[in-house]
């Protein structure tokens, strides 16, 4: 070995800095992508892991059979027969445990290091959405719970400031449908606001809420679309003579989703180092409903469980559920079965179709190193 060799090695290391882990231990070089440590989840019943169980005066609960009939822990507060989209995304990301509900008194200490679920069934983007269901946790309060309670404890658990650790988490936001079903369309006769103006206000509010999470340290966002609410058994029950989906409700969902997808492009330049994935669950479910047999389903219209007549949404407490649950699109009057959630989560994670995930999928998002 000549005397020049060490200097040549140094030069070579500097030249290949971006491609080699031999010469340095800097994380931006050694790390191929980034490991997702957990999920922080905000939204409504489609992503609620059981927060409403702990709300004394809430009518929007799924803590009884037949909910959870196929879930390993039985009824847990998830509004479906088995796992919801959050559980299944966690499986794809190989997270070591289910994401705990914030309102559970046991959600503290080491249990929060892989994320916390703040979502609340019947809640919405707007503070007054869900008032008919009694006590629910609106999106603004969910974010305050994250900021005031979970964040300080997470920093204590991990020994780092939030801005250091939060880029390693995905922030999933799934909300908006209730703002139409249980707010705008219920109050339409008493408020003089067009659908377009209501949707613009909804999107603007959500944009500010996303910016709030960003300012707290969030960098990777998964935004779930509103489902085709006009195709739900609840919508059909309210118009028994009407065949097919209720287009007024679907128009609202479609309009919101178009705004939400556009928001991804509009907001990103204003939030340095942020990355977004828009998951078009509307299209995924709509495709199943239009051609259920080809997607492995037999019934895209009726609820699998016996729905309580009082609200047309939730399963009757202790009521019957269909035997072949994987062949049904809807478990109750509004929420999809685990079988549908499996398809949504799989496509969210690895679909290459921009009509389903935009501008990329969750797998690619999880590998982005911030």
Automatic annotation (TrEMBL):
Keyword entries, A-Z: Hydrolase, Lipid degradation, Lipid metabolism, Secreted, Signal
GO biological processes: lipid catabolic process
Major place of residence: secreted
InterPro entries according to UniProt: GDSL, GDSL_esterase/lipase, SGNH_hydro_sf, SGNH_plant_lipase-like
Protein name per its UniProtKB record: GDSL esterase/lipase
Signal peptide location: 1-25
GO cellular component, one term: extracellular region
Location(s) in or outside the cell: Secreted
UniProt xrefs under SUPFAM superfamilies: SGNH hydrolase
């Amino acid at each position: 070995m000549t005397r020049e060799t060490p200097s040549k090695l140094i030069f070579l290391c500097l030249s290949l800095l971006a491609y080699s882990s031999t010469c340095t231990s800097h994380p931006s070089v050694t790390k191929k992508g980034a490991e997702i440590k957990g999920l922080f989840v905000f939204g409504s019943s489609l992503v609620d892991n059981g927060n409403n169980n702990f709300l004394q005066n809430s009518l929007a609960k799924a803590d009884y059979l037949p909910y959870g009939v196929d879930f390993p822990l039985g009824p847990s507060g998830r509004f479906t027969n088995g796992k919801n989209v959050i559980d299944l995304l966690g499986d794809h990301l190989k997270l070591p445990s289910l994401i705990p509900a914030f309102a559970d008194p046991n959600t503290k200490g080491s249990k929060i290091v892989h994320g916390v679920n703040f979502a609340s069934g019947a809640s919405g983007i707007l503070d007054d959405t869900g008032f008919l269901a009694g006590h629910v946790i609106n999106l603004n309060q969910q974010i305050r719970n994250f900021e005031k309670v979970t964040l300080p404890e997470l920093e204590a658990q991990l020994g780092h400031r939030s801005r250091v650790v939060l880029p390693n988490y995905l922030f999933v936001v799934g909300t908006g449908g209730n703002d139409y079903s249980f707010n705008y369309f219920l109050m339409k006769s008493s408020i003089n606001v067009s659908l377009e103006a209501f949707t613009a206000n909804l999107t603007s509010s959500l944009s500010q809420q996303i910016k709030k999470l960003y300012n707290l340290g969030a960098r990777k966002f998964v935004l779930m679309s509103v489902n085709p609410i006009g195709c739900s058994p609840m919508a059909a029950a309210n118009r028994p003579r009407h065949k097919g989906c209720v287009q007024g409700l679907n128009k609202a969902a479609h309009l919101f989703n178009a705004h939400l997808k556009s928001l991804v492009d509009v907001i990103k330049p204003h939030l340095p180092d942020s990355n977004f994935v828009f998951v078009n669950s509307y299209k995924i479910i709509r495709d199943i409903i239009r051609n259920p047999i080809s997607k492995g389903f037999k019934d895209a219209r009726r609820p699998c469980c016996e729905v309580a007549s009082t609200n047309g949404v939730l399963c009757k407490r202790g009521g019957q559920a269909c035997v072949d649950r994987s062949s049904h699109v809807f478990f109750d009057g509004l929420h999809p079965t685990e079988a549908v959630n499996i398809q949504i989560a799989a496509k969210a994670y690895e679909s290459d179709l921009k009509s389903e995930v935009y501008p990329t999928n969750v797998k690619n998002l999880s590998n982005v190193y911030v």
